[in-house]
């Protein structure tokens, strides 16, 4: 059998336009139903915004002791963790204990998962510590002069303390997050690639380990602010 006598297949496909394709396939655009408006009520809106109002009436007494034991366990864990994160944020260690309390109370009302342990976050403390170091008076990060058993600072001019700067940063961030919550801007996190998030997390982890080494070894390193500048 020669090449000219080989069987061949000829396929013809019509060139469709969008309207012609819909007409041949008898496509009809579905009409949007407005029944979803009837299912919306003020109660559902409130319970979706504050989920605790939905599960507190159904809370059983048998879960109380289990939640109490879990609460003590998490509280004990947050004491040293909060103190370490406070040092990371350049504020007194006792502030870290306060930071470990309030996020849990807020999540109690607005949280949607009972398996999540809320508290201080290392990267947020690291970024807050940078602002504290930049806008606080450097005298708060210098060794204090001793006068008997008391410690006094050599500066008498009105300045911002590290706690004041950290509180101002926290308040501003809270307002920004509330605006993002009401505008439903959480979807913007989908624009961040996994490689970018992993690189940022790895860099922050290295920075956290380096900043904690001085406290672990017991050495004093003077704090500096600005780009490659010291006091």
Describe the protein:
With 231 residues, this protein is mostly helical. The chain has a domain at 60-186. Helix content is 52%, strand content 3%. The protein is built from eight helices and two strands; from the N terminus they run H-H-H-H-H-H-E-E-H-H. The chain has helices spanning 18-24, 42-49, 52-55, 64-88, 93-110, 122-135, 162-182, 194-217; strands at 145-147, 150-152. A two-stranded antiparallel sheet has the order 1-2. Helix 4 (64-88) crosses helix 5. It is extended and about 95 Å long. Residues 146-155 have low confidence and may be disordered.
Q: What is this entry, summarized?
A:
By secondary structure, the protein is mainly alpha-helical. It is built from eight helices and two strands; from the N terminus they run H-H-H-H-H-H-E-E-H-H. It is 52% helix and 3% strand.
Please estimate the helix content. Answer: 40-55%
* Annotation field: number of helices: 8
From the alpha-carbon coordinates, what is the Rg to the nearest angstrom?
A: 30 Å
The H-and-E topology, N to C, reads as: HHHHHHEEHH
**pLDDT < 50 stretches:** 146-155
The number of distinct β-strands equals: 2
The major sheet is characterized as:
2 strands, antiparallel
- List the quaternary state of the chains: single chain
The side-by-side strand order for the widest beta sheet comes to: 1-2
Shape: extended
Portion of residues in beta strands equals under 5%
What would the average pLDDT be, to the nearest integer? 76
Distance between the termini: 94 Å
Query: What structural category arises from helix and sheet content?
Result: mainly alpha
């Amino acid at each position: 059998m020669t090449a000219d006598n080989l069987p061949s297949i000829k396929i013809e496909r019509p060139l469709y336009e969008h309207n012609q394709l819909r007409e041949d396939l008898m496509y009809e655009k579905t009409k949007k139903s407005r029944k979803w408006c009837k299912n919306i009520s003020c109660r559902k809106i409130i319970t979706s915004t504050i989920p605790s109002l939905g599960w507190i009436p159904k809370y059983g007494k048998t879960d109380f002791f289990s939640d109490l034991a879990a609460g003590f366990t998490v509280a004990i864990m947050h004491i040293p963790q909060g103190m370490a994160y406070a040092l990371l944020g350049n504020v007194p260690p006792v502030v870290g204990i306060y930071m470990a309390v309030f996020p849990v109370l807020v999540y109690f009302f607005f949280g949607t998962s009972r398996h999540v342990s809320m508290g201080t976050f290392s990267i947020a403390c690291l970024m807050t510590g940078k602002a504290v170091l930049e806008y606080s008076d450097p005298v708060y990060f210098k060794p204090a002069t001793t006068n008997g058993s008391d410690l006094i600072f050599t500066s008498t001019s009105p300045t911002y303390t590290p706690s004041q700067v950290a509180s101002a940063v926290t308040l501003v961030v809270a307002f920004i997050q509330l605006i993002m919550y009401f505008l439903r801007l959480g979807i913007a996190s989908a624009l961040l690639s996994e490689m970018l998030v992993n690189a940022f997390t790895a860099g922050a982890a290295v920075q956290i380990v380096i900043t904690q080494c001085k406290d672990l070894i017991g050495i004093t390193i003077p704090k500096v602010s600005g780009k490659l500048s010291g006091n």
